[in-house]
Every structure is written in C-alpha cells, then in structure tokens.
Design a protein that fits this description.
The complex is a heterodimer of chains A (333) and B (259).
Chain A: H1 7-22, H2 25-33, H3 38-50, H4 68-80, H5 87-98, H6 109-121, E1 126-129, E2 137-138, E3 145-150, E4 153-163, E5 172-183, H7 185-223, E6 225-226, E7 229-230, H8 235-260, H9 267-293, H10 304-316, H11 321-332
Parallel strand pairs in A: 1-3
Antiparallel strand pairs in A: 2-5, 3-4, 4-5, 6-7
Helix pairs in contact in A: 1-3, 1-4, 2-3, 4-7, 4-8, 5-6, 5-7, 7-8, 7-9, 7-10, 8-9, 9-10, 9-11
Chain B: E1 2-7, E2 9-11, E3 33-35, H1 37-53, E4 56-62, H2 68-77, E5 81-85, H3 95-109, E6 113-117, H4 128-136, E7 140-150, E8 153-160, E9 163-170, E10 173-177, H5 189-195, E11 200-203, H6 245-255
Helix pairs in contact in B: 2-5, 3-4
Classes of the chains: A alpha+beta (333), B alpha/beta (259).
C-alpha cells in the first residue's frame, strides 16, 4: 500500500493551504456562525475553482473524479483552516446522485446532472440528512439543494428550525421530506455510498483540524513563559503535545488507506476505522490545545476556539466513534 | 506573442536559510524550495498578456534538478511549456554569469517578451533583468507595476520613490515586475493535472551554447569571503511612564532624527 502523496497531490494541498491562509478564513467562519453567508460562499466558490469539489464529482458529470486520495488531501487542508460550509455534505450528495439508477429517478435526469455539475463548479451548495448517522442537514439555510433519505426514497428536504451545535459555525437543521427525487432500491445503496464518502471527508477534515490545533499549541508553548522559561520546556507540556502528535500520525495513514481502498469491498470498514481514529485524535488534540493554552484557550475571540469546537462537533458528525467501531467489528466477525 | 517568464526556486523564507560551510554557496538542501514570490507575479502577468494578445508562455528556470517543483507550479498556473537550464557546472554562478547563461538559453528559445520578478528573496541583487537586457541587446523596462502591449509597442509604469514613470519601448524587450502589478492566480486541480502533460525541455550548458569557463563558482566575480550567523536581536529599552512618557518618546524620536 502506498501512502506517500505524489508531487501533484502535494501541490494541490499546498495550494489550498495558501489559498485558505490568504483568504482570512477566520473572519468567514465567524460571519458564517452569525448567519451571514456571503464571505463563506465567496470562499466556497474560490475553493471550487481550485477543484476541491470537482475531485468528488465523476468526470462524466462535469467533475474530475472520483479521486478519493485528492479528496482527503483537500479535506485535510479544509480542516486545517476550519473552512465553513457543508463541504463533506456536498461530497456525499455527489456520491449519492452518481449512484442512483436511471430507472429510479423521479426528477428528470437533467435535474440530477445539473446538481452534480453545479457541485463540481461551485455554483450549487448541497447538503443532506441521512438519518440515523446524519440526523440534521448542515447549513441548509446556505444550500441550494437539500436532500433527505428515508429507506428507498430520496426526497428534497424542507428545512425546519436551526438547532444549536457544539460548533456555532455548523448550523444544523431538522428536515422534513418534500418532493420525491428518486424511489427504488438504488437509493439505499447510493445512501450507503454517500455515508461512506461523507465520513471519509469528515475524517480527513478532523486530522487537519487536529494538526492545526497541535501547530498552534506548539507555537504557544514556545512563546508563553512561566517560572522564567517557555512552558514548552516543561516535560508535562511536552508529553501532552507528543501524545497529540502520535494520535494524529496514527490516524492519518488510516485516512489515506481508506481513500486507497475506495471501490474495494473493504472501503466501508476502512472508512469507519479512519473515522474512529481521526475523531479521537482530533478531539484529544483539542483537549490538549485547551490545556496548553490555559484560560486564553476559552476565549471566543482567539482563533483556536474555532478549531476546538469544530473538533468536538466533527467527532460525532457522520457517525460517532462507537457507531463506526461497531461497523468495524461487524466487518471483522 | 512569444513570452518567456524567468522563474527561480528559492529557499522558503519561512524557514532558516543557510550557507554551506564548504564552498560558501547557498545550502539548497537545508530548506524547502519554493517559487520566488515575485516570479509568481511575473507568471501571472505573462498569462494575462497571453490571454489578451494570444501567443505562448514558456517558463525558463536555471537551477538544480529539484527546481522542477518550481516549473511544475508555473505550468499548473497555465504556462504552456518549460525549459530547465540545469548543469553542475552552473553551481555557484554569480549574477553576471547567471545572466550570461540565461541569455544564452533565451537566445536559443527565442522571445518577444521576457518577464521576470524584480528580485529574488535569496540573493536580492535585483540586477538580473538589466543584465539580461544588456546581453540580449533588448530594451529594459524594470520595476513595472503595469504593463501594456499594443502590437510591437510596450508601455510600462515603473514605480519610483515619488510615484511612477511611464517607460515605452519596442518588442522584443525585457520587463521586471513588482508585487503591485497583479494578484497571482492559484493553480487549480485541473491546471495541476494538465501540467503533467506539458513539455519540459532540460538543457545542459552545451545545449545552450554556454562556455563552461564563464560560469560557476570559479568564474564568479563576487566571492563570499566569510559569513556568520546574524547576531541575536538585542533587548529593547523599556521606558516606564512616570508622567513624562511623552517627552521620553519625543527625545527618542529626536535622537534618531525622526523629529
């Protein structure tokens, strides 16, 4: 198995990192949390132009994919900068629409293809609810397409009230099923594929979130002085940071491994293993970041709070670690 | 229009840059190589001129094998092809011999317009555009914040301490650009993948008709005699405000002849 990214994949990741660093992403996150979507949607379109969503959409439908390794490379950077919006959800919708059998479609094929092409080029923001793993539609108020699946039926979803999330920049909406988009057995398998792709994207995002938290904590421990020396010189602080690094470095190959097993029978199992490791590593990194920063880590105005809350919310988004552990167990027994 | 953009791989400015202890040249292995930032503006300007006037954009770089990363990025942004001037004999070349080798390569490639960043973040001599123009017998239009081409006429706005000068010339010409000129695009995933299929020609010094005795460390007119690490920054002076803080600040500014 090959875990090393090639030169093109590295350039893609580096480009996204630079783009997000230069785009004042924290301001877009805060605006998004306040219900003002414009800066976030501008960033969304820039990211789509760079190809972030095209790698999730098949070439035949106007994208460049499906390319799972490029996808996790991109989502690692999206997590590293805590980019707002239903990014993993749009990836899942693309996976879902791609797998619907033509005979199960109730809407015209042109409608579904238009959504796919729109997701690839950034003009269409899509989100979905996939109960029970994804009970609420993320950022439905900012989305052009909101879907929900109930058994064999895929419907346009009608968003209800916004619900409080652990991460204010994740706006969760309960939904009710509206017009039927597709009906038949392919909906069920398409929904499973969507769940796997969404969980894979979220796992990559989590590793990126954890990495950003570790980096900012290491920098802080080197700058903050106490008892006459930088706090990073104290062994207890060093151990905390090392533990965060070990967790993330164990999770990253699982995420890349899952991307590589896309299309194989082990894909679902590998995605679940990756999601468990990524959730726990990022959440551990968030707790350690909070400890290392002390009181300032609790400060809303200080950027690490954006990642700390994102880590906690993504920890249980797209299936909790225990749900994913159960899937790994079922696959092994 | 046949545009050649000269790009350079430099050590990442975010990391510590070092010289080698053996021959006192830049230690290229000690830091990650990145595209010299101003060269991205040069690539962007070349692409905009191509989009407006048609033609082709060729990337030219001189550097060791690992400079291919820099070529890849310029091609991913949208340049059409690349020439990589690479030869062990070029190692240690100073600005004069670099301009000679680059000029030889440019004569071989052919050009209507050569665009460069106005300086590199590692050597910071800022003289290459002028030297190239002299060696190529082409007009030099340096420090451009705006470039306009109309047929064979080229006009630039050259930044100065007091504003800008309008400089006109006839193509073929050599232009260097400053960061005010544009906003470089990010390479898209499609651009990155397309770059894989674009032609990259590697030239040794013999291919570019470069005389080996005129380049490299031995031929350099400038020599690094000695180097040492920058001294650590001295601690600042802390002035406690005891009602006379303003006067003390004013005294300080006066001592530095600011007021």
């Amino acid at each position: 198995m090959k875990f090393i990214l090639d030169a093109e994949q590295r350039l893609f990741g580096d480009t996204l990192h630079k783009l997000l660093a230069e785009a004042d992403t924290p301001a877009a996150i805060r605006a998004w949390a306040a219900g003002s979507h414009e800066p976030g949607l501008t960033l969304w379109r820039t990211l789509a132009e760079a190809g972030v969503l095209a790698v999730a959409v098949p070439e035949a439908a106007g994208g460049a994919g499906p390319l799972p390794v490029e996808l996790v490379t991109a989502f690692h950077e999206l997590g590293r900068h805590a980019a707002p919006g239903p990014l993993a959800e749009s990836v899942a919708v693309a996976a879902l629409l791609d797998r619907l059998a033509p005979e199960d479609l109730v809407v015209t094929p042109g409608t579904a293809d238009g959504w796919l092409a729109g997701i690839a080029e950034g003009g269409t923001v899509a989100t979905l609810a996939l109960p029970p793993a994804v009970p609420y539609a993320l950022d439905a108020d900012a989305a052009d397409v909101v879907l929900t699946v109930d058994g064999d039926e895929l419907r346009v979803a009608v968003p209800g009230e916004v619900r409080a999330s652990l991460d204010p920049a994740r706006r969760l909406f309960s939904v009710e099923g509206g017009d039927v988009v597709a009906s038949g057995p392919s909906v069920r398998t398409a929904a499973e594929a969507a769940r796997d792709m969404g969980a894979l994207a979220a796992a990559a995002q989590l590793v990126g979130v954890g990495r950003a938290l570790l980096d900012v904590s290491v920098a802080y421990a080197g700058a903050r002085r106490q008892f006459g020396r930088p706090i990073g010189e104290f062994q207890a602080v060093k151990h905390h940071l090392a533990n965060a690094l070990v967790g993330l470095e164990y999770a990253r190959p699982l995420v890349h491994g899952a991307a590589l097993s896309h299309g194989s029978p082990d894909f679902s199992r590998d995605v679940s293993a990756a999601k468990v490791a990524a959730s726990e590593a990022a959440y551990a990194a968030a707790k350690i970041a909070l400890q290392v920063h002390g009181a300032i880590g609790y400060t809303d105005e200080y950027d690490p709070s954006l990642w700390i809350r994102k880590a906690r919310a993504l920890h249980s988004a797209w299936g909790s670690p225990s749900a994913h552990r159960a899937r790994v167990l079922a696959a092994l027994t | 229009m046949n545009i050649v953009v000269c790009v350079k791989q430099v050590p990442d400015t975010a990391t510590e840059r070092k010289l080698r202890s053996d021959d006192k040249t830049l230690d290229r292995d000690a830091a990650d190589g990145v595209v010299n930032e101003l060269d991205e503006y040069a690539v962007e300007e070349a692409l905009r001129l191509k989009e407006a006037h048609g033609g082709e954009v060729t990337v030219l770089t001189m550097g060791p094998a690992k400079a291919t990363d820099t070529i890849r990025k310029a091609l991913a942004m949208g340049a059409d092809k690349a020439v990589h001037l690479s030869d062990d004999a070029l190692h240690g070349s100073d600005a004069l011999s670099t301009s000679y080798a680059m000029a030889q390569a440019l004569k071989k490639i052919g050009f209507d317009l050569v665009i460069l960043g106005s300086e590199s973040t590692d050597a910071r001599t800022g003289v290459l555009a002028a030297m190239l123009a002299e060696r190529l017998g082409a007009p030099q239009l340096t420090l451009a914040r705006k470039v306009e081409v109309d047929g064979s006429a080229i006009v630039i706005e050259r930044i100065t301490d007091y504003g800008y000068d309008k400089v006109e010339a006839t193509l073929p010409a050599v232009v260097s650009v400053v960061e005010k000129i544009n906003e470089p695009r990010y390479p898209s995933f499609k651009g990155i993948m397309a770059a894989k299929k674009k032609p990259v020609e590697t030239l040794g010094i013999a291919d570019a008709s470069v005389d080996a005795s005129a380049v490299g460390l031995a031929a350099a007119y400038s020599e690094v005699a000695e180097f040492s690490a920058a001294p650590p920054r001295a601690a600042g002076t802390v002035v406690k405000d005891e009602g006379d803080g303003g006067a003390k600040a004013a005294d300080f500014l006066a001592s530095k002849k600011f007021i």
